[in-house]
Amino acid sequence: MSNITALLPCAEPVRFLDPDGTRTAPSAETAATLEERGYTMPSDEDLLAVWRGMVVGRRFDAQATALTKQGRLAVYPSSRGQDACQVAPVLALGEDDWMFPTYRDSMALVTRGIDPVGVLTLLRGDWHCGYDPVATRTAPQCTPLATQAVHAAGAADGLRRKGIDGVALCLIGDGATSEGDFHEGMNFAAVFTAPVVYFVQNNKYAISVPLAKQTKAPSLAYKGIGYGIRSEQVDGNDPAAVLAVMRAAYQHAREGRGPVLVEAHTYRMEAHTNADDATRYRTPDEVDEWIGQDPIVRLQAYLVGRGVLDDARIEEVREEAEALAADLRTRMNAEPKVDPMELFEHVYAEPTPQLREQREMVRAEIAGSAHAANDKEAVR
After folding, report:
1. pTM
2. Is 281 a residue of the active site?
3. Across-strand partners of 99?
4. Which of the residues 187, 214, 276, 337 has the least number of beta carbons within 10 Å of its own beta carbon?
5. Phi-psi label, residue 80: left if phi above 0, alpha if psi -120 to 50, beta otherwise
6. Catalytic residue at 265?
7. Which position among 281, 282, 329, 359 bears the catalytic label?
8. Catalytic annotation, pick one of 37, 268, 298, 302
9. pLDDT digits over 241-292, tens only?
10. How far is CA 40 from CA 15, 70, 146, 377, in A?
11. Which is catalytic among the residues 52, 80, 112, 272?
């Protein structure tokens, strides 16, 4: 295999399971390619873990959507439909690995083991980040498109230089592949052999702009080839394939062979956010077609057919998910205690003179308002 050929993605997205949960029957040539690239069917135990993560994650996602409608969150970008892309790549990460998420990857953060209330702190508007990025090895959720692509490349290069056996997972959307930071991050990662995996969740729309109006590339996976990055495309609604491809990608990066770009073909079933009217740019028939490729239904059918998942276990995990949702409701319904002075914390490691000046101005204004209120009360 030539150097260029080794960079090319498979001609068709990697798939192990058909939408009805049956094993895909690949051609002999495709089977040989999958074996050559190290894509093997995950174990039943690993797939059960992915299935559980998706069931719990989707219930969290539904509860967060409901909290937005109740006014508890300012905004929430649902990842329903992208469940396999949110769970499988995260479960394949190791303890020393880092994750760089987007605003749509709340389900991935919950899968990472981060407190759901901490995950939603940003979207409620309390803090820019509600968890410790260093302790969790998870960067703050990124709202500007593609800036995390550069951060991930730098962090991965830092791991390499320190001799730490870790990789960085950079989650990214299809729209962000049109941003300069995405290309700068990939070029830097390739030149310095940084162990980073760029995982593009191609959900077909950059807000309301369809993929056809974003690029003429036959697949977003091909965008890595020009930078000398090994690239792949996978059926993002096939949890088994996503897990297999991402494991191989992490191994490639971890072994010092450079970064990897993986494009996952998936679909967001909900609107871009609660502020979006998706009926303006897509049809109900299109949504229904993708609902028929639901990753949870697909994997559950496969595991039930294998005899490793039964009604009792399904009910047990559903109850676990409901308990998480109930706890999330209870804690999110408690009014947060906010201190305006917290605005100035963690902006810089050492506050700048301008920041200290602004902090004192706000402190004085708060003190003045308190004195005025006390004076008014005394007059009464």
Report:
1. 0.93
2. yes
3. 138, 169
4. 337
5. beta
6. no
7. 281
8. 268
9. 999 999 999 999 999 999 999 999 999 999 999 999 999 999 999 999 999 9
10. 11, 44, 31, 73
11. 272
